Amino acid sequence: MDVRVTSDPQAFEREVFPFLQQDPVLHTIIMSNVHDRAQGTAGPEDEPSYFVSVHAPDVVGVAMRTPGRGVYLGALHEDLAEPIAEAYVDVLPDLRGVGGTRPAVLRFARRWCELRGGDTTETRGTRLHKLVEFTPLSAPGGPRLMRADDVDLVAGWSDGFAAEATDEIASDHHEWAERRLAQGTLWIWEAAGEPVSMVGFHLPLFGVCRVGPVYTPPEHRRHGYAGALTSHVSANILAGGNQACLYTDLANPTSNKIYHEAGYRPVADFVDVEFGG
Predict the structure, then answer these.
(1) Contact present, 195 and 150 (Cβ < 8 Å)
(2) Same domain? 211 vs 143
(3) Which stretches of the chain are assigned E, i.e. beta strand?
(4) What three-state secondary structure class fits 190?
(5) Which residues are CB-neighbours of 98 under 8 A, at least 6 positions away?
(6) Tens digits of per-residue pLDDT, 20-57?
(7) Fewest Cβ atoms nearer than 10 Å: which of 33, 73, 144, 194?
(8) CA dist., res. 213 & res. 150, Å (int)
(9) Which residues constitute the domain of residue 69?
């Protein structure tokens, strides 16, 4: 078994995408992150990413660590987690945590703590869903694409989303909003002429679009806006001949219920673990 580490996203994409594209829904996070960096569309970063591939002799597993994040293992087979942890020890002086399917994460975390010391805390559980049986959802108002005069609004909503959730948004929310505007990958729901919710999506990669982020400010919640807008965005993805997928927070049963009503079905569960002193 050969474990390789690189900070070259173009070379990594060429080497591992034939393996990952066998299931582009299951591997959507790694594929989109690598592709964005290979294409130069990820935005400015002040440190390198570290990508790992395991070969036996063909590629059998991959992992990544992008700036400011933990290591992401995705659906890595648990038997590969320990050699990947050993590979990252050599290049990461300070690692905040690891995410992926539970067996692989636990094996990685155990080996990491053996090598570096410290302890672990499980911080979040997420579920990947794939759109299988599309059912339109409705709410008062209607959808429109983000406009140039929405950049400040979207950046502000991104602050709220990042405080509550996840890894979908970069730290520079204004730059992130401008990038979404340029790509045409963010929709807004308006009710009575007022923006009340936003839903983004990732451009298709091997026929898969990942929906997210989904955010409604607290004062506009419980009216069905996010569900209706997610339904609209999902319908557009299907109309373009692509598959739609999204992640939900397992601690939020409301969102899981809404997406199920729209036709999304579970694919796999993932956990995040943080390292402490």
Answers:
(1) yes
(2) yes
(3) 2-6, 50-55, 59-65, 71-74, 97-100, 119-131, 142-145, 186-191, 194-201, 208-215, 243-249, 264-276
(4) strand
(5) 70, 71, 72, 73, 105, 108, 109, 112, 272, 273, 275
(6) 999 999 999 999 999 999 999 887 888 999 999 999 99
(7) 194
(8) 16
(9) 2-117
Low-confidence ranges of the chain (pLDDT < 50): none
pLDDT at 41: 87
243-249 sheet: strands from edge to edge:
2-6, 50-55, 59-65, 71-74, 97-100, 264-276, 119-131, 243-249, 208-215, 194-201, 186-191, 142-145
Q: Round to whole Å and give the CA distance between 50 and 13.
A: 13
Same domain, 143 and 113: no
The answer to whether residue 164 is domain-embedded is: yes
For residues 36 and 176, give the distance between their C-alpha atoms in angstroms, rounded to a whole number: 13
In the chain, the number of structural domains is: 2
Alpha carbon of residue 18 to chain centroid:
20
Going by C-alpha positions, the residue among 104, 196, 115, 105 that lies closest to residue 157 is: 196
Give the pLDDT score at 167.
55
What is the pLDDT at residue 159?
83
Q: Are residues 266 and 138 in the same domain?
A: yes
Res 132: pLDDT:
97
The pair of three-digit structure tokens given for residue 244, joined into one six-digit string: 């739609």
Residue for token pair 């060429």 = 14
